[in-house]
Amino acid sequence: MAAALMLRENDRFFRRERVFLDRSNPLDRPDDFLLRAYRFPRHKIIELCNELRPDLEKATLRSHSIPVELQVLSALRFYASGSFQNVIGDVFGLSQPSISRCISDVTDALVRRINQYIKFPDEAERRTNKSDFYKIAHFPNVVGVIDGTHIPIKAPNDNEYQYVNRKNFHSINVQCICDANFKIINAVFRWPGSTHDSYIWNNSQICRQFEEGDIANGWLLGKSILY
Predict the structure, then answer these.
(1) Radius of gyration of the chain measured on its C-alpha atoms
(2) Collapsing DSSP states into helix, strand and coil, what is residue 160?
(3) Which of 18, 59, 198, 219 is exposed most, by the fewest CB atoms within 10 A?
(4) Per DSSP, what are the bridge partners of residue 219?
(5) Alpha-carbon distances, residue 25 vs 28, 30, 192 (angstroms)
(6) Please, is 137 exposed, middle or buried when counting C-beta atoms within 10 Å of its C-beta (0-12, 13-18, 19+)?
(7) Is 56 exposed, middle or buried (0-12, 13-18, 19+ CB in 10 A)?
(8) 144 — phi, psi (to 5°)?
(9) SS3 (DSSP) at 22
(10) Is the four-CA dihedral 219, 167, 204, 185 of positive or negative sign?
(11) How far apart are the first and last CA of the chain?
């Protein structure tokens, strides 16, 4: 018994403390690296960390919780690269399950704020949009530009065939509208990849707002259609 207790105490003494090295914090890297790796400049990453901090800071009985900065950077790296989680974990000195939790927690925190940041402009803001678009190409009354994009996903178990798009991979077909400053002001992301762009538009709330005159005297520009 005494030998067992000594071994336990020795194990506690020699056990390495979980340390987050400076090299694991890419905010110490040059700005051009941050843009390539995370698609955000330093000041925007810091703003995002501060915005999500109330959701990501956790009370813990462990010696260290994962810092908010590492949680956000881990998720941003995954969004930007699509790398395997264990590869991202090697960069940050975290296990794959920890990276998975970071991605899930950061994603949930962002989704909770979606209506705060993605919203179609009111009448006064639309006048500003029209002015900004006119400065670009002297095209009058443009309130936004619209297009679709396919977000690749793993093959789902249910109705798998509906998610195979025309390029023969599984996806969600996302409709986005942006203003003249590349800010997303409307998004529809609930349709499987096989859904045609026109169907998504015709069944969207923003389409009904245009048809019913709630949004008047303005154009949405697309690749081949004016709305």
Answers:
(1) 23
(2) helix
(3) 59
(4) 142
(5) 6, 12, 37
(6) exposed
(7) buried
(8) 180, 165
(9) helix
(10) negative
(11) 80
Q: Are 180 and 158 in contact (CB under 8 A)?
A: no
pTM of the model: 0.75
Give the number of other CB atoms < 10 A from CB of residue 176.
17
Q: What is the pLDDT along the chain (227 residues), one digit of tens a residue?
A: 455 545 455 545 444 444 444 445 668 888 899 999 999 999 999 999 999 999 999 755 455 688 999 999 999 999 998 888 888 888 888 899 999 999 999 999 999 999 999 999 999 999 999 999 999 989 999 999 999 999 999 999 999 999 999 999 999 999 999 999 999 999 999 999 999 999 999 999 999 999 998 888 899 998 765 45
Return the SS3 of 70.
Answer: helix
